[in-house]
Amino acid sequence: MTTPTIELKPSAHPLSEAERQKILAAPGFGRHFTDHMVTIKWTEGRGWHDGQLVPYGPLSLDPATNVLHYAQEIFEGLKAYRQPDGSVAMFRPDANARRFQASARRLAMPELPVETFIEACDVLVEQDKDWVPAHGGEESLYLRPFMIATEVGLGVKPANEYLFVVIASPAGAYFAGGVRPVSIWLSENRVRAVPGGMGDAKTGGNYAASLLAQAEAAVHGCDQVAYLDAVEHKWVEELGGMNLYFVYEDAANGTTRIVTPTLTGSLLAGVTRDSLLSVARDLGYASQEARVSIDQWRADTGNGTLTEVFACGTAAVITPVGTVKSAGGEWTQSGGEPGKVTLRLREALLDIQRGIAEDTHGWMHRL
Ligand code: COI
To answer: SUPFAM superfamilies given for it (predicted)?
Structure first.
């Protein structure tokens, strides 16, 4: 694998300071983009080449470009945070780079070297660092690296040309209500992914497959959809775009355990999910991966041992789950309020990301 250098071609017309500050005051999620992007090409026989930092702008694609027809596409999501001393640091870009490689293998695409992935993110954040929101709040700069098949033609085969791109977007809370609990619609007849499929790859197709059930969730007044496994329709997998955690309290001996569904191959190995297994232990909780059935979820909520449920992901950070609705009825977690363990984990993770707590795991990558 060759590692291209990234040539800098900065924009002659970046957004004015006043316009940028207006956006940073209320960034929302995924609505505004910074002044630049990084692009790197891959061609069969030549490898990675023509790395460039260029002004943010449209991509020009032939209508017969492979990705537009057969969806050979993968992406990532990671965040850069303003640190107390004004510098900027990214959270675990190496983990995203490795998952990007795993997604590429599953989609028969070329693997971008980990160091090139990180360098591309570094170059973009360095150039657009004025877009990283101020230290102290929950806002960050969300990076969206992605790769598309750019060969022109309608043959169904792995393409012989690809384009890797990184764009960046200042980000506030993913859910409009911030840390307010979200409601979940349990999709019992639609599945997100199947064994042997590509549920563990971060590819647009999985998100497209989730949209109909997400629309059904909205019809039932819910914010998100939860999926069960495709074979037994019994095991809880994940939400449309984030992982799940269950918090169990053992009142008899005062212990707390957090559990996230096992990676069976049909759910995504979230970086936040993985980080929380360690953060929980740091806080004195037990943490584990295990299969959780929908019947057990309902029963353990009813008998008081399952005290909280929360969703987690790069975009969502940690978001409490409130009401769970299904065709068979509904129930509520932790009285519809954010649970104390959920909030503690959330604060602990954000404190590492914002540089307030010591980075004992070596997760923060400083520019
Ligand atoms: C992320 O959390 O970064 C994702 O890619 C999920 C998407 C729903 C925004």
So the answer is: D-aminoacid aminotransferase-like PLP-dependent enzymes
Q: Characterize the bridge pairing of strands 182-187 and 317-326.
A: parallel
Closest ligand 1 atom to the C-alpha of 75?
Answer: 5
**E strands, the chain, in order:** 6-8, 36-43, 47-55, 73-75, 78-82, 88-91, 140-149, 161-171, 182-187, 224-228, 236-239, 243-250, 255-261, 286-290, 306-313, 317-326, 329-332, 364-366
Predicted ipTM > 0.90: yes
Answer yes or no: are the C-beta atoms of 217 and 185 closer than 8 Å: yes
Could you give the CA distance from residue 266 to residue 260 in angstroms, rounded to a whole number?
A: 14
- Among the atoms of ligand 1, which is closest to the Cα of residue 142? 3
**What pTM was computed for the model?**
0.96
Compute the distance between CA of residue 320 and CA of residue 245 in angstroms, rounded to an integer: 9
Residue nearest to atom 6 of ligand 1 (CA): 241
Q: Let me know whether 242 and 158 are in one domain.
A: no
- Kindly state whether residues 226 and 165 are assigned to the same domain: no
User: 32 CA distance to ligand 1 centroid (A)?
Assistant: 16
- Ligand 1, closest atom to CA 316? 2
Is 121 in the same domain as 229? no
Say whether both 165 and 186 belong to one domain.
Answer: no
Residue located via tokens 């409490």: 320
What's the longest Cα–Cα distance across the chain? 65
Q: Check whether residue 162 and residue 265 sit in a common domain.
A: no
Q: What is the pLDDT of residues 182-236, one digit of tens each?
A: 999 999 889 999 999 999 999 999 999 999 999 999 999 999 999 999 999 999 9
pLDDT tens digits, residue range 315-348? 989 999 999 999 888 999 989 999 999 999 999 9
Using CB distances shorter than 6 Å, the residues near ligand 1 are 77, 241, 313-315
CB 235 within 8 A of CB 228: yes
Q: Is 201 within 8 Å of 103 (Cβ atoms)?
A: yes
Its domain, for residue 262, covers 182-354
* Contact predicate 182/240, CB 8 Å: no
Say which residues have a Cβ less than 8 Å from residue 238's Cβ, sequence separation at least 6.
192, 226, 227, 244, 261, 267, 268
Q: Look-up: residue for tokens 């997760």?
A: 363
